[in-house]
Amino acid sequence: MIEELFGVQGKVVLVTGGSRGIGLAIAEGFVRAGARVYISARNAEACAVAAKELTKHGDCRAVPADLGTAEGREMLGGVLSERENRLDVLVNNAGAIWAETVADYPESGWDKVYDLNVKGSFFLVQALLPLLREAASPRDPARVINVGSIDGFHVPHHETYAYSSSKAAVHQLSRHLAAQLAPVPVTVNVIAPGMFKSRMLSGTLARRGEEAVLAPVPLKRFVSPSDMAAAAIYLASPAGSYLTGAVIPVDGGTATTR
């Protein structure tokens, strides 16, 4: 019964930004659950090291690419098309952040964040749509899972203007894609994580300490790797086949109770 509801064994999965942090956690969850997983990241060495480590638990392969560029997305799409005849699940997790004051915020930083977080997600869906179509059926749609953020729900204290607005854009873009791709059928949903102990959060933790950082979180803990993996597997499994256009906060209640 559990396998019938939540099984993803044999699915072909791509996780971008899969060499560390949230992406690595999601990739490991799928590998351990029996999926054939491709991870992509800009750093080829880190991507290869992560894939090698994940092969201890199952089938994982590295395809490094800079998904903030058209060339990188085209290359990744080409490699997957050569190796696979379908793609069951695309997890758009690769992302960038830039913090600076209003007065000094550079256009180059804004472009870097939007090129990867928003443009990269949309145009990777476009590039991989033929493979997603091949995996899609009415009872078992292909899945796109975009990683947003609770910063897309509320105004953060940090001066991360491009990041927070890009994540709000990812949430709305996902709803729009969900409506357009439903006839294919491809579902498009968002996981919006709260505070995950990643490199992105390390500076804040060093300055403020864990107790202060967790103060606004009702459940008083950080997002764990298993929290992220479980949410992604749910959306990719038979249990999530009738859900599309949803933005799911995995944040201990921060976005939904504040």
Could you give the topology of this structure?
Elements: H1 2-6, E1 12-16, H2 21-32, E2 36-40, H3 44-54, E3 59-62, H4 70-83, E4 89-92, H5 107-135, E5 142-147, H6 161-181, E6 186-193, H7 199-208, H8 210-214, H9 225-236, E7 247-250, H10 254-257
Parallel strand pairs: 1-2, 1-4, 2-3, 4-5, 5-6, 6-7
Helix pairs in contact: 2-9, 4-5, 5-6
Radius of gyration: 17 Å
The chain-level mean pLDDT equals 95
- The number of helices is 10
- What general outline do the C-alpha atoms trace? globular
CATH evolutionary superfamily = NAD(P)-binding Rossmann-like Domain
Structural class: alpha/beta
Task: List its salient traits.
258 residues; alpha/beta; Rossmann fold; seven-stranded parallel sheet; 10 helices; 14% strand
Q: What does this 3D model show about the protein?
A:
With 258 residues, the chain is α/β, with parallel strands linked by helices. The chain has one domain: 3-Layer(aba) Sandwich (Rossmann fold), CATH 3.40.50.720. Helices cover 48% and strands 14% of the residues. It has a seven-stranded parallel sheet with strand order 3-2-1-4-5-6-7, with helices on both faces. The chain is globular, with a radius of gyration of 17 Å. The termini are far apart. The mean pLDDT is 95.
Compact summary:
By secondary structure, this protein is of the alpha/beta class. It contains ten helices and seven strands.
